[in-house]
Amino acid sequence: MTRAYSYTRISTLEQSKGRGIERQLAATRDFCQKHNLNLIEEMSDVGLSAFHQAHLRSGALGAFLEAIRAGKVTPGSYLIIENLDRLSRAALPDAIMTLLEIIRAGVLLATISDGAIYSAASPETQIIIGIMTLARGHGESARKSELSKATWRIKRAKAEERPITSVCPGWMRWSKENGQFEIIEERAAVVRDIFNWAKEGKGKNWIARRLNEQERPTLKDSSKFWQPSSVYLVLTKKAVFGEFQPHTKVGNVRTPDGPPIQNYYPAIMSKAEFYASQPPRGKKFKSASGSSPASLLTPFSKCGACNGPMRKLNKQRTVKGKTFLSPYIVCRNSMSGGCKGSKCWPHRLLERAIVGAVAVYCAKHLSLSDAAERSKRSAEARHEAAKAAREDAEKRLDAAMAAIGASVSEALRRRLEALGKAVDEAMEAEQKAEKDLMDALVVADLTDAPAAMVKMAKIEDREAALRFMRRVVRSISFVGDVAKISLIDDVFFKVVLTGSGSKRRGIYMTFPEISANRSKIIDEGEATP
Q1: Spatial distance between the Cα atoms of 95 and 132, rounded to a whole number of angstroms
Q2: pTM of the predicted structure, to 2 decimals
């Protein structure tokens, strides 16, 4: 049976209280039964807007498109949706690109409401009708957006009389009974202490560590620990003395909308106390740091003790009267005293050891070489498909323009011009597929060329090394003195940190699948501060 995927979407969380998702799923199952399709996955996005393309950035549809790009969706499969407006309500060029990306990958797009099935072989008239449907969906959403903006403008104009929304800073809450904001004294006391410490000259790192040591509550129920960044945000909030600055979005940029409104929130300190805690002119709430190359490890690293992210940290050291910065990798939560189970790892030594070991392993083991070859073939196929889709789109557009000629209406001509713009964007997609192909070729070449592996192990090209690591490393987990590195194909090895105090540190690397022996790596240039 032909494989099929269903996609349902509702724009707001309030709609989830109804039967929108159930209705769409029921219609999908009936469609699959009628056309003898095997429904293998049901995807849903709840509360994600197709007008702003949130469902593509962080939703199930975006993940499905990534699966198409990775070659994980078999050509000839079906994607079933209720209507094209479930797919996109974005501006027409963006909506067209989403539609074309699906069908040019060989996936058939079925819409239940009208029984249409879109494919790369569909007639031009059907594609144009689909484009007009997408345009209508965008127009409806744009009209609703304008009405919503007008409502918010009215609310902002009356903000001095009544709050615009119940959303407020973490040290207060909205009271439905009184119709006003109420201060949460326990949290407000924490905020006042933060400002008092800042007034005494304490930095945000010191303040975050002190709050975690005292186990003071955070301003968000979802946050376990205070971070320097959250301390900084509190110190810049003028809401502490009651000021509110309305904002609006210009494009995708959040910008102030009109002058700030005074006495909007209940104040927990005076304006003078707020400004007395601010740094002198020309300085910022900022820790001293030095510049160094981006880490090849932190994109994959997690702390095994608290599941927090690992961060590269430059520590200042003085040796024989000379001061320099030495990079380490640490748990972000341990930097503010929240995590007690993390160790400080010498970054330079660990990076060279792990990248080198991964490179050598890839050179010696055929399973990983085969995976790289499969990735290369998949990238080649996607590149050829993108190129063919672009050429086909150009031919169909030229043929449609020539056939319709002067009899086309102005509105339809604009649609065709938009389709022409979509062709240009298809060319950009082809260039992206070509870049993915080049990345895959880099990895495939590395798995077969010992000389390239030696270069990779020495990290002579950090950009190529990062591409390589993204292809083969799944995760790096740090627990105490042990780091576990997981690779694709369920391969893993461990790194053990040795030494303590002022003694020089080394690491042991173990390869359970290769040998029971351990290879010792020591870097005489690394020392614990």
Answers
A1: 11
A2: 0.45
